[in-house]
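#onboarding

Welcome to the new folks! Below is a worked example of what a typical request in this channel looks like: someone posts a single protein sequence, and someone else replies with the predicted structure as tokens. Don't worry about understanding the tokens yet, we'll cover that in week two.

Example request:
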Amino acid sequence: RSIEEQLGGALETVLPVGTQITDLPNATWNRRRFVLEKQLHRKKTRSSWIQNHGIFLVELDCDGKELKAALWSCRRCDEAGSPELFGAKATSASISHLR
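Example response:
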């Protein structure tokens, strides 16, 4: 199943403030676990147009703690069964991928 399918309704769900990261819906791919970045109640929201072509994720370690900076997952590649993940700090790699 694709990452987006695994997260299912979580894409539309707004969770209450104070929800623990371990309680968030998560997706597994290639033995890696991810949650939606937008459900982590960050101060800043993303405004880049690439969000129309994929989803922003945060990878978790085995204890449910954030591992790295946010990642962007290409929707088209995910639907094809081969998710491509890119660092979300800058959008240049994601934009190049979409071309």
